[in-house]
TrEMBL record:
Matches recorded under Gene3D superfamilies: 3.90.228.10
Originating species: Rheinheimera mesophila
UniProt name for this protein: DUF3990 domain-containing protein
């Protein structure tokens, strides 16, 4: 299984030397981890490119933070994977969600939905001892961001790698690069 990550071209050397750094944003879709696009409901390379280009834009400055993007492909050990793109995976997720809500209610009460989801996904990965979580998500395209439209229908398959040590450093390679705008 191939995994694709879109980012600033300037980060390529650091990533190849030091590996990826897990995102710890409070509203990460699938919790703390390194995010990749993978095979599923759309082309992961196109998804990674769209993400890299969209991520370049800074709302505060109304300018791009970087001018060149890169799509990196990495090989990842998927022996401990939690895949909710299947019915079986969704059944497990929903069963665990019901069982764990009582335990996590103090952590999620009065928090925005995206923060609640992050906490829930991190807990699911921990309970299932999963190094990778795969899920179908809806992510706004650049067009949708600019025109303020959205949907609730998934348009890509995303993998969140919880344990960076399973990313094979020597497998990281450039697949595509180009200008952001």
């Amino acid at each position: 299984m191939n995994f694709y990550h879109g980012t600033d071209y300037q980060k390529i050397h650091s990533i190849k030397a030091n590996n990826f750094y897990p995102s710890e944003n409070p509203d990460d879709w699938l919790g703390k981890g390194v995010y990749f696009f993978t095979e599923g409901i759309s082309c992961p390379i196109e998804n990674a490119e769209e993400w890299a280009k969209a991520s370049a834009y800074c709302k505060k400055t109304r300018a791009n933070k970087y001018t060149n993007f890169v799509i990196l492909m990495a090989t990842i050990d998927t022996s401990k994977i939690f895949d909710t793109t299947t019915n079986d995976g969704l059944v497990v997720f929903n069963k665990l969600r019901k069982e764990t809500y009582e335990k996590i209610m103090p952590l999620i009460t009065r928090k925005p939905a995206n923060v609640q989801n992050k906490i829930l996904w991190d807990l699911m990965a921990e309970l299932l001892e999963s190094d990778v979580v795969i899920h179908n998500l809806y992510i706004k395209s650049i067009f949708e961001r600019k025109n303020q439209v959205s949907s609730n229908v998934p348009n890509c398959t995303v993998a969140c790698v919880k344990n960076v040590s399973i990313i094979k450093l020597d497998s990281i390679q450039e697949v595509r690069s180009g200008l952001v705008a």
